[in-house]
Amino acid sequence: MDAESLLLSLELASGSGQGLSPDRRASLLTSLLLVKRDYRYDRVLFWGRILGIVADYYIAQGLSEDQLAPRKTLYSLNCTDWSLLPPATEETMAQTAMVKGRFMGDPSHEYEHTEIQKVNEGEKIFEEEVVVQVKEETRLVSIIDQIDQAVAIIPRGALFKTPFGPSNVNRTFEGLSLSEAKKLSSYFHFREAIDLKNKTLLEKADLDPSLDFMDSLEHDIPKAGSWSIQMERGNALVVLRSLLWPGLTFYHAPRTKNYGYIYVGTGEKNLDLPFML
Amino acid sequence: VLEIAIQNAKAYLLRTSSKSGLNLYDHLSNVLTKILDERPENAVDIIENISQDVKMAHFSKKLDTLQNENELLPMYEIAEMQKTLFLQGNLEGADQELEDEIAESSLPNVMESAFYFEQAGVGLGTDETYRIFLALKQLTETHPIQRCRFWGKILGIERNYIVAEVEFREGEDEEEVEEEEVAEERDNEAIEADEEEEDELPKAFYKPPPTIPKEENRTGANKYVYFVCNEPGRPWVKLPSVMPAQIVIARKIKKFFTGRLDAPILSYPPFPGNESNYLRAQIARISAGTHVSPLGFFQFGEEEGEEEEEVEGGRDSFEENPDFEGIQVMDLVESLSNWVHHVQHILPQGRCNWFNPVQKDEEEEEEEDEEKEEKGEDPDYIEQEVGPPLLTPISEDLEIQNMPAWTTRLSSNLIPQYAIAVLRSNLWPGAYAFSNGKKFENFYIGWGHKYSVDNYTPPVPPPVYQEYPSGPEITEMDDPDVEEEKAFRAAQEATVFAAEENEETEEDEDED
C-alpha cells in the first residue's frame, strides 16, 4: 500500500484482522517519508509484516519511475531504522527452497540443513553430506520475492505502458466498476508478464496493449481456487485474499482510486491448497 | 375604452401559439426577467440570441426512464440491515428498566477489548468492531443469555464468519432433539429382527466401533454455545453441538471454509456433517488449544466433602478468583508459566471427559456375553485417555520443532509502563491473548487451521477388511471337469440303485 495513504489503507485492509498497532503506525508514517527522501524513490510502498518467533519484520519497497522495474526492498525491526536488502537471485532461491518453518525474527540467524552432494575426487564420486547454512536475511529476500511474483496484484487500468517501454501510474484511473471488480480477470500480477506471450492471437486481439500488458489472475493455478474474492460493507469494498500465501490481502474500493495490498503472515506458502479446496 | 384596448392587447399577447405552446406574453416576460437578472452588455444587440436561449431553455428534459438502482442494491441492503442495529429498541417504561438492563447486562465490553487488541496490532477496525458490538447486543436481547463474548472471526472463501461465544442462562437451553435417540433405538431393534430372519446369509465379522456419545451441554467441549453470522446486521445462526466423532475427523482433514453453513465437506476420511459441524469442531479445537488466562485469575471451585470422589478426567469447573491481585505485565511477557489454559483439553477420543465405550446396558451385556462365548474377542479394558488437567500453565505446551507454542510480546517497546502483554499462538496462527495484568481477553482471527511444518498428507485408506468367515459355502472352487462330473454321477446312480435294491428287497420281504 502506498505510504502516502497509509492510514486509510490500513483501515480498508483491516478486514483480515491483522493490522498495526498505533505506535507502529505513527513511526511508519514518519520513517517512510524519510526513506523516500533519502533513497529518492518515486513511490514507497508499505509491503507488510512477516511474523517471526522473536520479532517481526516490517518490509517496505521503493519504486522508481518505471513501475515494473525491479523494486528495492527494505526491512526494519522497529519501523524506524530501515536497511536495504539485496535483490534476489536464482542461487538464493535454490538455497532457501530447502528451509522450512517459521522465521525467527533475527536477521543473522542461520538455518542449517544437510544436503547430500556429489563430490568428485579424481575419478571417484563420493556422496558427502554437506551442511548448508542459510542466513535468515537471504531467506527473507527470497520469500519476499516469491510472494511478489506470485500474488502482488494491481487492478486493471492502474498502470499504463508507454510506447517507449516504461510503465507509469495512470492518473486517470477512476477505479473498477462493480461488475468488473468481482471478476478475477480485472486484476493483474504486479510483475513482468510471463504468460502473455503464450496467449493465442485471438485472445490478444481483445487486449489493449497499453493497459493489458501483465498477466491476469484468471489463469492462476489452481483455477478458480487460489483467490478468495469478497465484497465487504455491502459493495463498498472488494477484498481479495490469497489462499496460496495466506496473509496477503488486496483491497480496492470500487469507483475510487483506493487500492493496495499488504502481507501480514508467517511467510510460508500454503502447499496444502489442493487438499483444502 | 383605453382599458378595453389594453385588455384586448393583453389577450392577444396571451394567445398561445398553435405550434409551440408558448405565448408571447410569458416569453417576453421571461426574456426581460433574464436580462434584468444577468445585465449583459449591449443587451439590445444580443436580444435575439437571448430570446432564442429562453426558448431553448423552456424545453425540459423528459424524465429519465432508465433506472440505475440495481448496481448498488446490496450496499444499501446491508446498510439498511445495519441501520436497524443502531435503533435503540423500545425503551418504554421508567428509568428503572434501564437500570436493570445495565445491571444485568451480559454484553461484554467489546470496544475495550478491541482497544487493547489494537495495541497489539490485531483488530478489525473501529467501525467494524462497533457494528459487531451492536450485533452482539441484538443477540443478547433476542436470546436468554447469561454471558456472551466476541470469540473472533473466521475467514472463508466466499464469506467470513463472525463468531460469538455464548452461555445460556440456567435452564433456558433449547432442548436438543431427543427424537433422534429414540429413532436410533428403533432402528437397532429392526436390524436385529432382520438378522434373525435371514440366517442363511453369512454374518459379517465387522462391528462398527461404538459411537461415542457427545458431551452434555454445558460440559466439556459443549460448554459454550456458539452463534455465527456472516456480517454484522445479518441474523445470528446457532451452531449445533459438537460430537466427538466430528472432532476426531476434523483433526485429520484440512479444508477451507466457504462461508455457507450448509456446504458439504468432501474429504477423506468422510466428515460426518456439513460446514456448520466442521466449523463448530474447529472452534472447539481452537478454544481448547488457545484460550488462556493469567495464573490465578481462575481457581477451582471449593468442593466440600467431595474430595474423595475424584471425577475421572479431572475437575472441569472453575470460577473467578475474587482475590486475584494481578500479575506484573513484565512477568506475563517473560514467563509462559504465568498463563494457564482455562478450557479443557480435548482427548484423542474427541471429548473432554473420558467415556468408556465398553460400559454397556444390561441388555447389551447379556448379548455380549453370549457372543463372547462364541468368539471370545474384545478386551474388556480400554485404557483411559488422559489429558492435561484444567488450569495447567502453557509453559507445558508441546513445542513444535524447537519452536515454542506461544510467542510473547510487549505491545510497545517505546512506552513500557503502559504496555500490555500480548500472546500469540504459533500452533494456531491467528489466536491472540492480551493482558494488562488484571484484565485479559482471547481472540481469534484467521482461517481456522492448525499450523504444521510439514505438508498435510491425507490418511491412507485402511486395508480391505475380511468380511465373512471362510467356509465351504463361499470358498471359491474350480468347477468340476467333465470326467469328474461323470464319476460323481456314476457314484450317485450307484447309491440310488443300491437304495432301490434295498427297497425292493424290503418290499419283497414285506410281501413275504
Describe what this molecule looks like in 3D.
The complex is a heterodimer of chains A (277) and B (512). Chain A has 277 residues and is an alpha+beta fold. Chain A has helices at residues 6-12, 22-39, 90-96, 136-151, 178-181, 201-205, 273-276; strands at 43-51, 56-63, 72-76, 83-84, 110-121, 124-135, 153-155, 159-161, 167-169, 187-189, 227-232, 237-242, 248-252, 259-265. In chain A, helix 3 packs across helix 4. By secondary structure, chain B is of the alpha+beta class. Chain B has two domains: 2-50, no CATH class; 106-175 and 208-301 and 313-357 and 385-486, no CATH class. In chain B, 36% of the residues lie in helices and 12% in strands. Chain B has 13 helices and twelve strands. Chain B has helices spanning 2-14, 24-38, 47-58, 73-86, 95-104, 110-119, 126-142, 179-197, 244-250, 275-290, 329-334, 362-375, 482-511; strands at residues 145-154, 161-168, 225-229, 237-238, 292-294, 298-300, 318-320, 339-341, 406-410, 421-425, 431-435, 440-446. In chain B, the strands form three sheets. In chain B, strands 4-3-2-1-12-11-10-9 form an eight-stranded mixed beta sheet, sandwiched between helices. Chain B has a two-stranded antiparallel ribbon with strand order 5-8. Chain B is flat. The model of chain B is unreliable at 89-97, 175-197, 304-314 and 360-380 (pLDDT under 50). Classes of the chains: A alpha+beta (277), B alpha+beta (512). At the A-B interface, helix 2 and strand 11 of A face helix 4 of B. Chain B: It comes from Ictidomys tridecemlineatus. Chain B: Residues 170-200, 361-383 have a biased composition (Acidic residues). Chain B: Pfam families: Radial_spoke. Chain B: It is found in: Cytoplasm, Cytoskeleton, Cilium axoneme.
